[in-house]
Each structure stands twice: as structure tokens, then as C-alpha cells.
Amino acid sequence: MVVEELLICIELYNVGVIGLIKPHGLVMCEVLLLTVECVFHVCVCVCVCVCVISTGPQTIKKAQGENVTLGCTYVQSPSDTGQLDVEWSNVSPDMTQKDRLILSYSGGTVYKLGDPGLMSRLKCVGDPGQGDASIFISPLQASDTATYECKVKKPPGIDSRKVTLVVLVRPSVPKCWVDNGEEIGSTIILRCKSSEGTSPLKYNWIRESGGSLPPTATQSKLTGELLIQNHSQSYTGSYLCEVTNEVGKEQCKYSLRAYSSANKAGVIAGAVIGALLLLLLLLLLIWLLICCCQKHFSSFHPIKYQLNLLERQ
């Protein structure tokens, strides 16, 4: 029965409840740095050392640009007589490497020891010396993804809490384009691609105008490709691609057209003829410019100028 009461009491302690009505007499048990006292039907958990009492998820997911509070509240015990020290560290994923200390509180002073880029965005929520060593980070960056550990030391007591922060990047605005042209009767591929964003990215094509996707169309949610076979005039219109992940979404549009092979040949021929006419016009302008320059310089030739003077005399 003592063990049952202890387990219940520890569970209640973890969620912040310190009392429980129990129909038992006096029971005293000490284990795992906790004391269970049951007097007059009341079971009370008493911490016999410094204890971190923050609760919450062990993994926190946030979007880049948002903010987060990493909780680390604690209680002290009269039996703790040493100097209070609080440390925040980045836990190394490599067990052979040391954790990286980013913030320390000792002797009433807070020391920021981590990367300056992170330290400029990190601050203490409360007074680390008065039971609240929580930290606040804003705005979040993808590089902030890590496991953070808060360690509270007041000899002989010591306790800690770890929390994993995952910073997710929203998708960037995707680019929409078409492969294989837009010729009637051909197989075309509409493509959609976002250059940034935390995986997995999911793509979805919809048709904004003209109803649902063509019956000959198939799309890949992973690559953002929309393949349309046997393209026709009825498949033209505005198509929208939306890319999403856990923390955001973005979209782009493409206006799909359709033309026949004859029209394609006409367009090519027109482009060639236009280019040739432009070239001929340019050559004509160059020829006229050369002629004007030659006429201008010849009128000021020194010998001809002297002959003209003699003739006038």
C-alpha cells in the first residue's frame, strides 16, 4: 500500500498536484529524493532537494520566425545549503562530444555564453534565482533546432529537464512552369517547385477555371508534376499549385494555352521573317550612316579646301 501511495504521489507531483485525500494513517517513505507523508488522511509529497517542476511536451515544434518559451521552474528545499547555479546547454547528439553551454546563472548574475546570433534573441523569462529559469527565444531560426537542457544545482541537490525544439521552415513561394510546350494532342507537364521549406512538402494542383482537372491528367503530390496527356483546347485555363508542410503553405498559378502544329509553324515563320526584316533595317541604317559620314569628311579635305580658295580668288 505504501508503494501504491508513493506512485500516486509522484504522479501528482509531476503534474503539479501536491495533495491527495487517502483513508490511511501515518506513513513515511523516502525514495527518489521525494518524501511521502500521509497524516490524517492527507498524502503530501515533500521534495527533499531542489526539483525542476516544469511540465509540458518533451518536443516542441515551431515555425521559423515565431517565438518559444522553454520552461524551467523549480523549487528549493531547506536541506539545500550550497550556492545556486543554473545552466542551459545544447545537448550534443554525439554522445562522445560535450554539451555546449549557452547560458549560466551564478552568484546573482546571468552569463550568456552561446553563439552571438542566438544570444541576441534569447532572454530570461523571470528571475533565475527565484525559481524561474525559463528562457524565451524570438524570432526563431532553423539553426535553433536542438535539444536543450536546463540544469539546476544547489548542493547537495541537483535536477534537470530536457526539451527538444524543432524549428520548421515554411515553404517558399513556388515557381510554376510547363514542359514539352502546349501543342494540341501532345503530352505536357505542368511543374511546381518550392526552393525552401522543411520536408515533407506536399504539392496539389487544382484548376481555377474550367472545372476539375482534365480526365487525362495525373499528378504527383511529392514532386509537384501534373502530367496531361492528349492536350486539347478544352484543357486551357488557369491552374493553381499549392505547396504545404506542417507550418505553412504557398501557391503559384499558370495560365495554360493550346495551339495546333500549324499555328506553331506559322508562329515560327513569323518570328523568322520579323527577325530578318529587323536585320535588313539595321543594315540599311548602318549604310546610311556611313554615307553621311563620308560626305561630311570629304567636304573638309585640306587639299580640296585650298583649291576651293584659289578658285574663289
Automatic annotation (TrEMBL):
Domain (Ig-like): residue spans on this chain: 64-164, 171-255
Listed transmembrane segments: 265-290
Cellular compartments per GO CC: membrane
Keyword entries, A-Z: Disulfide bond, Glycoprotein, Immunoglobulin domain, Membrane, Signal, Transmembrane, Transmembrane helix
Membrane topology: Single-pass type I membrane protein
Primary location: membrane
Keyword Oxidoreductase: no
Localization annotation: Membrane
SUPFAM superfamilies for this protein: Immunoglobulin
Gene3D superfamilies, A to Z: Immunoglobulins
The keyword Membrane is annotated on this UniProt entry: yes
PANTHER family named among the record's database cross-references: COXSACKIEVIRUS AND ADENOVIRUS RECEPTOR-RELATED, V-SET AND IMMUNOGLOBULIN DOMAIN CONTAINING 8B ISOFORM X1
This protein's name: Ig-like domain-containing protein
Organism phylogeny: Eukaryota, Metazoa, Chordata, Craniata, Vertebrata
